[in-house]
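Memo to structure team: turn this sequence into structure tokens by end of day. - J.P.
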Amino acid sequence: MIKIETKRLLLYPISDEEMQKVIDDEKDPDMKKAYSEMLQGCLDNPENQ
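Reply from structure team:
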């Protein structure tokens, strides 16, 4: 797994299923929308995921 970590940021890949769980559990509507757009981008372009 590729992981990028700094003092203020941690980036790591998650599966589409894990992302859907994040979306389902998110309470903030703006974040839910942003995460949904990210997931849709991954589903539309799996070669760039």
